[in-house]
Amino acid sequence: MKTSKSKVRTAIFPVAGLGTRFLPATKATPKELLPVLDKPLLQFAIDEARAAGIERMIFVSHPSKSAIERYVHQDHDLCATLRERGKHKIADTLDEAAINPDEEQVFFVMQPEPLGLGHAVLCAAEHALPGPVAVILPDDLIVSEKGCLSEMIEAYEGSEPGHMVATMEVKRDEVSAYGVLVPEGEAEGQMLRASGMVEKPEAEKAPSLQAVVGRYVLDGSIFEDLEGLPAGLGGEIQLTDAIALGAGKVGLCGFRFSGDRFDCGSKAGMLRATLAYAGTQKEYLPVLQDLQPLPIAAE
């Protein structure tokens, strides 16, 4: 493999999932718009992509989740109403959060059926800019000073091309919930070379404890490898299978990010994220200090 300075310009946001674990809350509100206090999960992901210098954002959504598109775009009428009422600070916050069509490129594509993460990424192929692409799973909230994607892209663009996946070490009895890296040799700083990945292996058969979480920087060949890929685990087109297929051709490494990861696809993870985020803001500290369990029997 030759050294390359391939620039990562596109980020893909798979947001088509129906969020069944959060029903009834997600009956009318997409899970990506559920807030950690007052900031939706999707906004954390968008901000992370912006900080990493992403030029084009592609949202792979579902026809029932039109609220996501409304959220992403600017709402001029709402902001005008807020300003008329003297609420300039709130209007400024909304303007800054929304996509600015003069400065940012955004596309929405639909994934009508839940055919897997690999299929969702493939849906974005037509709109991806040339070169490697990033994939961000909004319900994997990773909080760090620099930003996980910024860390990954900096490492990726300064090394050999290929696939890079964010990894973290998990307990042996937890590996069956993740895609797991097949390492090659010792880690070099935050990077760990690998020969492949295994999707949700049995605990005793897992090739390592390096679990893949929701950030990827993938060589542009990922779309070719996803084309015609047969359904894998769960009858879905698995992104893990396509990455493993391409590992021998373009290379693969895990990236051990420096931030804290919260699995906001689960209720417990969402609660942890909310409490951790509240703990960073002075106005909520008295609430956290006084927090007592409600006198309600556990379900």
Brief digest:
Its EC number is 2.7.7.9. With about 300 residues, the chain is an alpha/beta fold.
CA radius of gyration? 20 Å
Helix content: 25-40%
End-to-end Cα distance, whole Å, is 55 Å
CATH domain fold name: Spore Coat Polysaccharide Biosynthesis Protein SpsA, Chain A
Q: Any key phrases for this structure?
A:
299 residues, alpha/beta, Spore Coat Polysaccharide Biosynthesis Protein SpsA, Chain A, 13 strands, 29% helix, NTP_transferase_dom, transferase, UTP:glucose-1-phosphate uridylyltransferase activity, GalU_uridylyltTrfase_bac/arc, Nucleotide-diphossugar_trans
Give your account of this protein's structure.
The protein has 299 residues and is an alpha/beta fold. It has a single domain (10-281), classed as Alpha-Beta Complex (Spore Coat Polysaccharide Biosynthesis Protein SpsA, Chain A). Helices cover 29% and strands 23% of the residues. The chain has 10 helices and 13 strands. It has helices spanning 41-51, 66-72, 76-84, 88-97, 117-123, 148-157, 222-226, 239-250, 267-278, 285-289, and strands at 10-14, 35-36, 39-40, 56-61, 105-110, 133-136, 140-143, 163-169, 179-183, 191-199, 210-218, 252-256, 260-263. The strands form 3 sheets. A 5-stranded mixed β-barrel has the order 8-11-9-10-12. InterPro entries: GalU_uridylyltTrfase_bac/arc, NTP_transferase_dom, Nucleotide-diphossugar_trans.
